[in-house]
Structures are given as structure tokens and as C-alpha cells.
């Protein structure tokens, strides 16, 4: 991958748009990214990595890449044009970001979220769209993921200087970050956690078994005579699971026998308690007969007392009847004779009501005529005012009719323009299917080409297979000279002949012709769309004005930036439709206004016609009002005379109405009935009391005879009941005691049976848990380097040692040149503490012939060694990526510690690296490099943000 052009918008420290033309550096040689510390030199590489993979170095969140120096409404994006395998590509990315957008309201703005976008194109062909799709396409295209790209392309001196000088423990951490072996360390931790978990599970199972044994109830067991039960009690550091299960089983069987014995004894006690209870019940019956006898005596006494009270009440009721009955009957006759006079009173009241109604009707007529006069006066006044207010309505109607005609004509022109926009939109919609047909033809052409290439490869493979069939172990290969032949070539499964190869070539040619035809169709359609667009734009300019057309096309451009494929037709159609809506609204408004003005003119003419009629009606209504006022005065006099006659009769009556007089008569009659009823009730109560006395006497005789039948007397029945109760209590106490003993035996047996099942299950699972714990511990020990045969080296450290060896081999090729054959890096696997072997690093000094620690190197020598390690890692990563060729390398800082001679050697190595088809970029602030390298990207730092420019001298 070779960068051609990098464009940064509001990215990192770069506030403004920055365009860096890498093509000016050519396809090989050195170039320098130069500037002060913190100016943004490394951000140039970060922008390239972000454009390709959507990630930033150092684990930085991509949403923070937005420049703090840029305006709030300036979007952040990066575009990289690059060359790979002879083909040019362009990738554009923008992170998720918050941008300020102006509202139509003057001065108002708001923050809106814009989603992350990414596109990858080659020429006019869109290869991928969307962040994940672009990630997959770029990774497949370059054959590298982000981590491999960073290892191969960015030589970061800091990490390898740290790797060179670190102790074995710290070096392990650095190598873990470089080679990404965190998963191996995590695997070791997970295996150790699994071993601990298995050991804990075994310990919990043993603890559960011990706890279950401790819960065994051995109460009343003969421990001294049964040696098997002794395993269940006492202090036991280790339990014999099988012995415990066997002893508990025997104990449960013994408890079942004890439970049967207690059940039999409880049955006998229950029968004895029932007999005692029956005897007590008989005594209780005698006590009840005594209580009933005493209750009968009390009832007789109460009945006699009630009979006495009833006799007194009867005498009182007779006296009250004799005193009030005569007066009430006389009052009843008096009220009945006065009732006919109340009918005359009601007739006079009706006469007053009729006079009042006539007077009110006359007054209402006068008021109605007065209101009519007032209404007519208001109507006359209102009609005169309306006629005066609408004097110019006829001229206004004529103007409105003219404006309506002009608006209707403009509607027609807009409808024609909308029809043109719809036709253009249909043509634009055909562009995407046409492009898809081009893509399909391109894919078919690619498949035909691949088939032709595969046929050719199969022919070549058959030739190689023929050569391989002649190889013999121990004999040199005629191609490479190797004596070993581990993977000789095999013939293709279906080897084509020359005719089949030519057929695939013909299919390839037909596919190319189809691709050209589809491309021509697409170009013809696109030319038609452009011509229609020009015509629609001219028409819209005449109808809407140039500013409105420019705004609509600007909105379409912003939509395209957001990833839409909308053309010009839709925004212009929307603008025309909006204008059409406004004109239609104006037409409807003018139509409504014209109709309203016509109605107003018609109403004015109606007002003039009705004014004359209303003035005549007003004169007539005033005459009628005078007549109605006279009639109302006469009716008021008649009403006064009727009220005087009513007052005269009402003064001579006791009650104001017939209803009240009738109500009083009914009240008197009720009192007569009440006095008579009270006397009858007293007689009935006295008769009932006499009957209760007779019934109580009969009941008392029956209760005395029942007590004699039971053979008891009132004096001895309580003493006998007390003796029988005591016997019953003793029998029931023995029964309860045996029931409690049975429940306790049952509960003990149930508990022990449950524990027997639990102990059996736990004992059955213990062997498997013990085996699992032993196996997990062995595996964890091996992974951590603690088992036999591991040399006390963990699995991760073993893998890191292998990687470290490969990097050192590649690094020494570079160090030999940079140190002029002075130094060679070697890995020290001896002399370290247990478990730490394999990661110590020494250097062989060929000037002295001695081996010494890398910590003894000088500053310049340390830079050479760390740069060699970094280049070694890049070389090894290229080998792991399938031997890919490196087009561009960035080397970050570290040159300031070199003396002139060392700097010269390092520059020779870098010049050698750049002498092939490789472009080497050095990121540094060292002035000496600025003087020596004439192709540069100069980065400047200001208070308003950084800027960068390409310089080629």
C-alpha cells in the first residue's frame, strides 16, 4: 500500500482542511515528517490508519478525533487515495460526531448527531459502503488487519526501546502488547481459576457431607453396644463415607421398630381415655339436668312477675281510655262540619290567580311590543350603518377577480414544470438499476477471467506435477536443489486441454463485450438525465428564481454527502411542489375572497330593500304599544279586588287551607284509634303473661322428674363430676405423652431417612469431584509451568520466547549493518530465576569478543538496537502475512540520541530499505534530518491549530 493523497478535515490538531500529496515523493526513497513536539506529526500516520481501518493508535476512541480548534458546524472526515497492486483506490471515513446546525429562526442553532460513515471506491466503482463493509474490504485487499498493519508500517521507537531495556518481567509485558498474547495469559488464569473452582467444589462437597453427618439424630441409640454407630459421633478429621452411610442405614431400621412399639402403646392409652371420657359425660349430663331444673324455677318466677306487670298495665290503659276518648270524638265532629267552607276559599283563590294571569299577560304583551319597537329601531340603525360601511365593495370585487385569473395561470405553468420533474425523477431512478447491471456484467467478466486463469493454472500445475513425479528422496530437485520433497505438486483434478482453455478465453471476451454494452447504456442514460436536468433547472429558475434553485441543489448536495443517491429532480420537484402549494393556496384564498365580496355586495342590496319595510313596521309597533299599556292598567285593578275578597274569607277560618284542616281531622282520628288499640294491647299482654306462668309450671315439673330418672340429687352431682374429670385428665395425659413420643420418633426417623438419601448421593459424587479436581490442578500447573517437564516456563512465556527468537533473527540482519558488524543480539535462557527463563536479552560485542547485557549499550547503540528490533518485527510480520511486499514504512522519533557516525550508519540502513520499491517516512523533530532529507511534510503548531504542507526541494 502506497499513499498518494491524504485529505484531513477538522481532524486531531488540524483545524482546517489539509491536503498532503504523497505522490510528489515518488514510489521510493526517504521523506521526513518534521515539526515541533505535539504539533501533530504522528497524527499523519494516525489519519492513514483511521482511513483504512477506522481505528486510532493507542486505543484512542475515534469519537475524540474531532478537532477542538474547528467550528462547531465543520464536519470531521479523512480521505486517503492510495495505490495497491497496480490499482488506485480512495477511502473516506467520518467518525460519529455532534455538529451544530442553524435553524430558520434568526440566531437559533442546535446540535445534531451524525452517524459514522465510510466508503471505498476505485475510479467510479463503489467497492464498499458502511464502516463494517469497508473494514472487511480493506483487510481483504491489503491482506493485513489493523494490528498487523501497525506492526509492519509504523516503526515506533518508544515501545522497542522499552523492550530493549526492560527486565524479564517487564519485557514479558511489552512483548505481550506487541504480539497480542493476552489471550494466552487469560487462558492460564482461566485454567487456574478452574482448578480452584474444582478444588472448592470438592471442599464444599466434603463440607456438605460432614454437615449432613453432624445433623444425624442419634438420640436413644445404644452407642456403647453398637460400634457401627460410633462413626457418626465425636471428633472426626476425615469421614469414611461408606461406613457413615452403612451406620445410618442400620440406625433408621432400628428406629422403625421403636416407632411400631410406641404406636401399639398409644392405642391402648387411647381406649382407656375414651372410657374415662364416657363416664365423665354421664356425670356432665346429670349436672346439666340440675342446671335445667334451676332454670325452670327461674323462668316460673319471671313469668309470675311479668303477669303482675301486665295486670297493672291493663288497669292503666282502661283509665286512659275513659279520660280521652270522649273529647277526641267531639273534636273529630267539629272538624268534619267546617270542611265545606274551605271549598269556597279555594274558589276565591282561583279567581285571584286568574286575575293575576290576565294582568301578567297584558304586561307581557306591552313588554313584547316594547322589545319589538327596540329591535326595529336597532335593525334600522344597523342597516343604515352596514350600507354606509360597504360603499367600496363593488370596486374591490373587480380587483380580486383580476388577481384570481393571474394566479390560476401561474398554477398551470407550475403543473407543467412538475410533470417535467417527475419525468426526470423517473430517468434518475433508472440510473441505479443501470449501474447495477454494469456491476453484474463486471462481476460476470471477473468470473470469466478467473475461470480462464484457473484453466491456465491447471495446465501449469499438471506440468509441475509431472516434474514432481520424477523427484526421489535424497536426490536434488532440478528447480530448487532441495534433497527433501515434503509437498510435491499434484496434478489438477480436471486438467483442461487447449480447446477448453480457448473456450474459457472466448467466454472471457464475450463477458467483456457485455460489460462494454452495459457501460454504454449507462452512459447514454446519464447523458439524457443531464439534458433533462438542464431544461428543468432553466424552467425552475424562471418560476422560482435562481436563489431558490441554488438552495434546492445545495440540499441535494448535502444529502449526497450523507450517503444518499438522490439526484436534482427530487429537490427541484419538492421546491416546485412547495411553490405550487403556495400558489394554490393563494388561488384558493383569492377565490374565497371573491365569493365573500360578491356575498357582501348582495347583502348591501338586501339591506337597502329591507330598510324601507322595517321603518313602516316601526310606526305600527309604536301604536300597538300604547294600546297594550292601557289594557295592563285595567287588569291590575281587577286583580286587587279579587285579593280583598279572598283575605276576608280566610280570616274567618281556623286553618289556611282545606288540606291542613283535613290533615288535622285525620290526626284526631288516629289518636282515637290509638287509645282504643292501647286498651286492646294491654288486654292481650295480660292474657299472654297468664299463659307463660302456666307453661313454666309444667316445665318445672318435667325437669324435676328427669333428675330423679338420672339417680342424682342437686347436693352430690358436682362432687361426682370432679372425681370423674380427674380420671379423664390422667388418661388423656398418658395418651398425649405417647403421641408426643410417637411424633418425635417419626420426626427423628424421617429426618434420618432424608439424611441417609443425602449422604448416599454425596458419597456417590465424591470420587468424580476428587478426580476432576486432580485433573484440573495438573492442567493448570502445566499451563503455569509448575508441572514436571515444563522447565518452570509458562505456556505464554514459551510462545513469547519463540516469537522473540524470530524477531531477533530478523533484527540482527539490520543491526549488523547499522553497527558495522559490531553487535549481535542474543537471547539469554540461563541464569534467571525459576519460571522467568527465556526472555533475557544480551548483546555480543565482536570488538571485545564478549557477551554483555543490553543495558550496557550507549544511547546511540541503544537506538540502533531498538530500531533493529522494530525493523525485525516488521520483517517477521511481513513473513507471517504471506511474504507480502512493503511499499511504505513510517519510523517514529528516536534519532536525537545518535552521534554523527551512528546516524550515518542508520541512514545507510534506511536508504537501503528505501532503495527498492519502498517509501520510508521518518517522523522526527531533529534538525540534522531536516538538512539531510529534502522531501518533507512540515508540520506547524499555532494557537488556532496545526497545519501541514509538502515540501520537495
UniProtKB/TrEMBL annotation:
Keywords: Coiled coil. Residues 5-183 form the Rad50/SbcC-type AAA domain. Pfam families: AAA_23, SbcC_Walker_B. It comes from the Bacteria. Transmembrane segments: none annotated. InterPro entries: P-loop_NTPase, Rad50/SbcC_AAA, Sigma_54_int_dom_ATP-bd_1. Residues 266-320, 345-386, 658-685 form a coiled coil. Gene3D superfamilies: P-loop containing nucleotide triphosphate hydrolases. Signal peptide: none annotated. Residues 488-517 are annotated as: Disordered. The keyword Ubl conjugation does not apply. Belongs to the SMC family. SbcC subfamily. Heterodimer of SbcC and SbcD. This is Nuclease SbcCD subunit C. It comes from Olsenella absiana.
Amino acid at each position: 500500500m502506497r499513499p498518494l493523497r491524504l485529505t484531513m478535515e477538522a481532524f486531531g490538531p488540524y483545524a482546517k482542511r489539509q491536503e498532503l500529496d504523497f505522490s510528489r515523493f515518488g514510489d521510493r526513497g526517504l521523506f521526513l515528517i518534521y515539526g515541533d513536539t505535539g504539533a501533530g506529526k504522528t497524527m499523519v500516520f494516525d489519519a492513514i490508519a483511521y482511513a483504512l481501518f477506522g481505528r486510532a493508535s493507542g486505543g484512542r476512541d475515534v469519537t475524540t478525533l474531532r478537532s477542538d480548534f474547528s467550528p462547531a458546524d465543520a464536519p470531521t472526515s479523512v480521505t486517503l487515495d492510495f495505490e495497491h497492486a497496480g490499482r488506485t483506490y480512495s477511502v473516506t471515513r467520518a467518525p460519529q460526531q455532534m455538529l451544530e446546525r442553524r435553524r430558520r429562526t434568526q440566531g437559533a442553532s442546535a446540535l445534531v448527531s451524525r452517524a459514522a460513515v465510510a466508503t471505498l471506491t476505485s475510479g467510479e466503482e463503489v467497492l464498499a459502503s458502511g464502516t463494517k463493509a469497508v473494514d472487511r474490504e480493506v483487510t481483504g485487499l491489503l491482506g493485513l488487519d489493523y494490528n498487523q498493519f501497525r506492526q509492519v508500517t509504523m516503526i515506533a521507537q518508544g515501545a522497542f526501546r522499552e523492550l530493549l531495556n526492560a527486565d524479564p518481567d517487564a519485557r514479558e509485558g511489552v512483548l505481550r502488547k506487541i504480539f497480542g498474547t493476552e489471550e494466552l495469559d487469560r487462558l492460564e488464569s482461566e485454567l487456574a481459576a478452574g482448578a480452584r473452582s474444582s478444588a472448592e467444589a470438592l471442599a464444599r462437597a466434603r463440607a456438605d457431607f460432614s454437615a449432613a453427618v453432624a445433623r444425624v439424630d442419634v438420640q436413644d441409640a445404644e452407642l456403647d453396644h453398637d460400634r457401627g454407630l460410633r462413626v457418626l459421633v465425636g471428633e472426626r478429621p476425615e469421614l469414611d463415607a461408606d461406613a457413615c452411610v452403612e451406620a445410618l442405614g442400620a440406625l433408621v431400621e432400628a428406629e422403625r421398630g421403636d416407632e411400631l412399639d410406641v404406636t401399639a402403646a398409644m392405642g391402648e392409652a387411647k381406649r382407656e381415655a375414651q372410657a374415662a371420657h364416657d363416664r365423665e359425660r354421664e356425670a356432665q349430663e346429670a349436672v346439666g339436668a340440675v342446671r335445667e331444673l334451676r332454670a325452670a324455677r327461674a323462668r316460673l318466677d319471671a313469668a309470675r312477675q311479668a303477669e303482675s306487670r301486665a295486670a297493672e298495665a291493663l288497669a292503666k290503659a282502661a283509665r286512659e281510655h275513659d279520660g280521652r276518648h270522649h273529647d277526641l270524638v267531639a273534636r273529630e265532629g267539629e272538624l268534619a262540619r267546617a270542611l265545606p267552607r274551605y271549598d269556597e276559599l279555594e274558589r276565591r283563590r282561583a279567581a285571584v290567580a286568574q286575575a293575576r294571569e290576565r294582568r301578567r299577560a297584558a304586561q307581557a304583551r306591552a313588554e313584547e311590543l316594547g322589545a319589538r319597537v327596540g329591535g326595529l329601531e336597532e335593525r334600522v340603525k344597523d342597516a343604515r350603518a352596514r350600507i354606509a360601511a360597504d360603499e367600496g365593495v363593488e370596486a374591490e370585487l373587480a380587483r380580486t377577480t383580476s388577481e384570481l385569473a393571474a394566479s390560476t395561470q401561474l398554477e398551470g405553468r407550475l403543473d407543467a414544470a412538475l410533470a417535467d420533474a417527475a419525468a426526470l425523477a423517473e430517468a434518475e431512478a433508472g440510473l441505479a438499476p443501470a449501474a447495477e447491471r454494469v456491476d453484474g456484467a463486471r462481476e460476470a467478466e471477473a468470473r470469466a477471467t478467473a475461470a480462464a486463469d484457473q484453466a491456465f493454472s491447471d495446465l501449469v500445475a499438471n506440468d509441475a506435477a509431472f516434474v514432481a513425479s520424477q523427484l526421489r528422496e535424497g536426490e536434488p530437485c532440478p528447480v530448487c536443489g532441495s534433497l527433501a520433497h515434503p509437498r510435491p505438486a499434484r496434478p489438477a483434478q480436471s486438467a483442461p486441454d487447449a480447446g477448453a482453455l480457448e473456450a474459457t478465453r472466448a467466454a472471457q471476451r464475450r463477458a467483456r463485450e457485455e460489460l462494454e454494452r452495459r457501460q454504454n447504456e449507462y452512459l447514454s442514460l446519464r447523458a439524457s438525465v443531464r439534458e433533462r436536468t438542464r431544461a428543468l433547472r432553466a424552467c425552475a429558475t424562471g418560476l422560482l428564481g435562481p436563489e431558490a434553485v441554488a438552495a434546492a441543489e445545495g440540499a441535494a448536495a448535502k444529502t449526497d454527502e450523507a450517503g444518499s443517491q438522490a439526484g436534482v429532480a427530487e429537490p427541484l420537484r419538492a421546491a416546485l411542489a412547495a411553490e405550487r402549494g403556495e400558489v394554490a393556496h393563494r388561488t384558493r384564498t383569492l377565490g374565497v375572497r371573491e365569493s365573500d365580496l360578491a356575498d357582501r355586495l348582495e347583502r348591501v342590496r338586501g339591506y337597502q330593500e329591507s330598510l324601507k319595510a322595517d321603518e313602516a313596521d316601526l310606526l305600527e309597533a309604536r301604536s300597538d304599544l300604547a294600546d297594550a299599556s292601557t289594557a295592563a292598567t285595567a287588569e291590575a285593578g281587577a286583580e286587587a279586588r279579587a285579593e280583598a275578597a279572598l283575605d276576608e274569607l280566610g280570616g274567618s277560618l281556623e286553618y289556611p287551607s282545606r288540606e291542613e284542616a283535613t290533615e288535622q281531622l285525620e290526626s284526631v282520628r288516629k289518636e282515637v284509634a290509638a287509645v282504643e288499640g292501647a286498651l286492646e294491647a294491654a288486654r292481650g299482654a295480660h292474657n299472654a303473661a297468664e299463659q307463660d306462668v302456666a307453661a313454666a309450671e309444667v316445665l318445672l315439673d318435667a325437669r324435676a322428674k328427669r333428675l330423679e330418672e338420672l339417680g342424682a340429687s342437686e347436693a352430690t352431682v358436682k362432687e361426682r363430676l370432679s372425681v370423674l374429670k380427674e380420671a379423664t385428665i390422667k388418661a388423656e395425659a398418658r395418651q398425649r405423652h405417647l403421641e408426643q413420643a410417637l411424633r418425635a420418633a417419626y420426626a427423628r426417623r424421617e429426618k434420618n431417612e432424608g439424611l441417609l438419601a443425602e449422604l448416599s448421593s454425596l458419597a456417590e459424587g465424591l470420587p468424580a469431584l476428587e478426580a476432576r479436581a486432580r485433573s484440573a490442578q495438573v492442567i493448570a500447573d502445566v499451563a503455569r509451568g509448575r508441572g514436571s517437564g515444563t522447565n518452570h516456563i509458562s505456556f505464554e512465556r514459551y510462545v513469547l520466547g519463540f516469537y522473540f527468537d524470530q524477531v531477533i533473527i530478523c533484527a540482527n540482519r539490520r543491526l549488523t549493518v547499522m553497527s558495522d558488524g559490531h553487535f549481535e543480539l542474543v537471547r539469554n535462557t540461563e541464569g534467571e530465576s525459576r519460571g522467568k527463563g527465556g526472555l533475557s536479552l544480551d548483546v555480543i560485542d565482536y570488538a571485545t569478543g564478549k557477551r554483555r547485557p543490553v543495558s550496557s549499550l550507549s544511547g546511540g547503540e541503544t537506538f540502533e538496537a531498538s530500531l533493529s528490533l522494530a525493523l525485525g518485527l516488521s520483517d517477521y510480520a511481513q513473513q507471517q502475512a504471506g511474504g507480502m511486499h512493503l511499499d511504505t514504512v513510517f519510523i517514529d522519533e528516536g534519532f536525537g540520541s545518535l552521534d554523527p557516525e551512528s546516524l550515518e550508519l542508520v541512514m545507510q540502513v534506511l536508504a537501503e530499505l528505501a532503495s527498492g520499491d519502498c517509501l520510508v517516512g521518518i517522523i522526527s523533530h531533529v534538525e540534522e534530518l531536516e538538512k539531510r532529507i529534502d522531501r518533507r511534510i512540515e508540520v506547524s503548531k499555532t494557537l488556532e491549530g496545526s497545519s501541514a504542507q509538502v515540501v520537495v526541494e
